[in-house]
Amino acid sequence: MVFSSGQPKGEITLLIEGKADSPSKAPSEDELEHELRDLISKGHSISTSVKIVAEGTAVKRKDVYALALRLFAKPDETEESSNS
Question: Domain tally for the chain?
Fold first, then answer.
């Protein structure tokens, strides 16, 4: 480094800007369904699968969970949750 007025004394603070967030394209419902089916077929629970898919996409966890319930919930489970 070259300093015009001599060697600096003390500490130097260097600020570095992080990578700018790039806008993510939300995956289609078919893509989400494919990811959920893949994870569930590998033995993950619905809850864990939803968490993994939501963390890896720009889709809210509650939206992924609603899709998972429509796809994988047994008829008894959806009736019970709607009665609560």
Answer: 1
7 lies in some domain: no
SS3 64: helix
Rg over alpha carbons for the chain, rounded to the nearest Å, is 24
Assigned domain for 19 exists = no
Q: How much is the pTM?
A: 0.60
Question: What is the domain range of residue 67?
Answer: 29-74
Q: What are phi and psi of 72, to 5 degrees?
A: -120, -10
pLDDT one-digit tens code per residue, 29-75 = 999 999 999 999 999 999 999 999 999 888 899 999 999 999 988 77
Can you read off the two tokens belonging to residue 60? Answer: 């809210």
Concatenated DSSP letters of 17-59: PPPPPPPPPPPPHHHHHHHHHHHHHTT--HHHHHHHHHHTSSS
Q: Tell whether 63 is covered by a domain.
A: yes
Q: Cα separation of 14 and 40, whole Å? A: 46
